[in-house]
Amino acid sequence: MSFKLHMDDLADLSVNDVIRRIESQFKIPLGELKLFDLLVDEERNTAMRHGAYMFFDGRGECIYIGMCSSSHFAHRIGGHFGMSPKYGMNTFLKRTVKTILGLEDKYPSYVSALPRMADYRLLLIGTDSKSKVFIRRLEKLLHIIYRPKLNFPKGFPITYKPVNLGENFALSIASQ
Questions:
Q1: Sign, Cα dihedral of 97, 102, 108, 112
Q2: Cα-based distances in Å from 160 to 31, 109, 155, 166, 175
Q3: Which of 64, 71, 127, 137 is the most exposed place for a label (fewest CB within 10 A)?
Q4: Element (H or E) spanning 40, and its range?
Q5: Which residues lie below 8 Å from residue 165, measured CB to CB, with a gap of 6+?
Q6: How far apart are CA 170 and CA 10, in angstroms?
Q7: What are the tens digits of pLDDT across the range 43-68?
Q8: Stated pTM of the model
Q9: 102: left (phi over 0), alpha (psi -120 to 50) or beta
């Protein structure tokens, strides 16, 4: 089963249909994820490079959404697991350790957190050759829909307006 969706397959759907598609899509457990899983889309025989990614906790709740517009998925997802508290790209790990697991922001906490995160899951949404602006808008739309708690530890932005769930997904992205 693939944990990868593609913008081409979602563009003509309504926002509501995309939500249902995301909810029903297989998400790979982090404990089973391998580097090569992030490099190639086996179904399309293409590189997996750019797009949005979603982390889900063990209960299936979306807790973090990010975008990958200048580096490859393999680099960006791997960066989230940098083991130093001083590393600047490990937002997902750092916020999981502090916000969800209630541990100190120190190296031993990072090490002890990883086995506890093994059943967390990942879903990729590939955008192929779309622009950075498009990917940023996709990420924002997903933020509005899912309100992932690790993205907004200080509260959800009041500037993010509700989305019409019946609207075309691609048009909703364009309006962000």
A1: negative
A2: 33, 33, 11, 18, 12
A3: 71
A4: strand 40-41
A5: 14, 15, 16, 19
A6: 8
A7: 888 888 999 999 999 999 999 999 99
A8: 0.95
A9: left
